[in-house]
Amino acid sequence: MEAPRAERFIELATALGLAVMLVDAETLGVVVASDSATRLLSLEPRAVGERPVSWLSFIDGETLSEVRAFARSAREDGAPSVRFSAAGTFGNSQTIRMTFLAAKDIVPEGTLAVRLDPDSARQIADHEAERLKEKEIETSARIQQTLLAGSYTFEAPGASFAAETIPSQQVDGDFYEFYELEEGSVDFLIGDVMGKGLPAALTAATLKAAVAKAIIKEVVAHGDDVNPSRVLSEAERHIAPGLIDMGRFLTLYYGRLSATRGLLRFIDAGHTSFLYYDSARDQCWQVKGSNMPFGFTDGQELRSYALPCHRGDIFLFYSDGITEAENAEGSLFSAPRLMQLLAAHTDLSPENLVKKTLSMVFFYTAGAFRDDVTLLIAKTSHEGPKILCRFAATLDREEAEALSRLREAFAGDFAESYPAGNREIGTELSLALVEALGNVIRHTQGKAQIDWEMTENRVTVGLEFQGKEYDWFATKEPDMESYPDHGFGSWLMQKSVDSILVLRGKNDENRIVMTRGLE
């Protein structure tokens, strides 16, 4: 073979921007190729005969036989110039055309020149780019399934957990994680990044890394006293600027379930509401916090919430891919339907409840998930802390004058059942209770079921009533200097307790839960 002549031929083809290569006339192995052909076909030219014919894999068997017959004829006949055109399918049934040339005065002896036509070259380039992208996504999906998502179940003291995520594409922006940072408690994270695919998955991984780094910093600084609010504030400080620059945001819950203490603490950063099955009342509630998603602002003062729990309670966290899943008619699966499903299967373990829920959503949509779907479910099996005092009463609109007696009864029960406690706590809690009842009377049907319970480390006050949805905490802190005629009630309620939540039932049922620690 005339090496200098082959090199000159390829230099000319490269200068002209042609996708051309020289192949051995007998083996069809690549001898040398222009830059365009090398890039398009991912070639690494080797010695003659060592290159396999995989570059011709898009030509069917019959056409490949014709190519071999042409090459044999060219070798045997020694024609000064012979051309042969072939076509095959590449990628999505795209037609690829090429021209084979045997010309003694143009190409070195014993070789054939192969040129891809320009349109075919572009098609190969597009297909190769798509192939590499698919390979990258496939690799990312394997990494995500191994490190970031998939399904997970485990047992903890007094509770069991299960979680699973199903991407709408090969990779997704939904995420969850579990941490065992405090004896008797399990911390967990569940969230959703705006968007789909690889960018969302990378953002989710970045958030999880930021949380893990913040947890390590907390442990170094405070030992076992890992504070979820400080953890998320630190993570948000690191990730929010990048999210804002990219025009992205993410939502999440950070929860800490202490079944032996009978308490779920959580921080809601703009995520969908979660469902709470209250076994004592055989009632499902929607629960929602009030913080903003990450990426809306550089930083925020994160508010945490507390929800007492008892044996048999269930917490179901989900991404909006569940409730916004559509059937063929465009109807959403919806939160009420999810509540109904939970209420009908409270006897299931978290693992089986995850499977049941996903199978029902899958059936509802005929398997056509348009968004990523994620579930995280916890079920308690511990009785919780010893109850020192319980009280229940009913207050009607017509008995508004009984508020003062109710307040006195609460403060008295508190002082009697927990004499070591500060009586001031009972006074503040009773004030919050009276303010809440005032709002019930003004904004609802005027009747409320009142209950409270006391353990050695907290007091929980509950109010249940019927009424349309009402934003209890829209009022900002009142300006004391201007003596406003409203706005004090919600402000006093929030100042008097550690946590206040409004739970929504399926049929306009409401439950206000106020907790105050005694430690």
Category from helices, strands and their pairing: alpha+beta
Overall mean confidence score, pLDDT: 79
- The shape, in one word, is elongated
User: Helix coverage percent of residues?
Assistant: 25-40%
Main sheet: strand order:
6-7-16-15-12-13
The Rg value, from CA coordinates, equals 34 Å
User: What is the fold-level CATH name, i.e. the topology of the largest domain?
Assistant: Phosphatase 2c, domain 1
Description:
The protein has helices at residues 3-15, 35-41, 61-77, 118-147, 197-222, 228-246, 320-323, 335-344, 350-364, 403-417, 423-443, 488-496, and strands spanning 20-24, 30-33, 81-90, 94-103, 111-116, 151-156, 159-166, 174-179, 186-193, 250-258, 263-269, 274-278, 283-287, 304-308, 314-318, 373-380, 389-395, 448-454, 458-466, 499-504, 509-517. Helices cover 36% and strands 28% of the residues. The protein is built from 12 helices and 21 strands. The strands form 4 sheets. Strands 6-7-16-15-12-13 form a 6-stranded antiparallel β-sheet. Strands 2-1-5-4-3 form a 5-stranded antiparallel β-sheet, with helices on both faces. Strands 8-9-10-11-14 form a 5-stranded antiparallel β-sheet. A hairpin with a 6-residue loop joins strand 8 (174-179) and strand 9 (186-193).
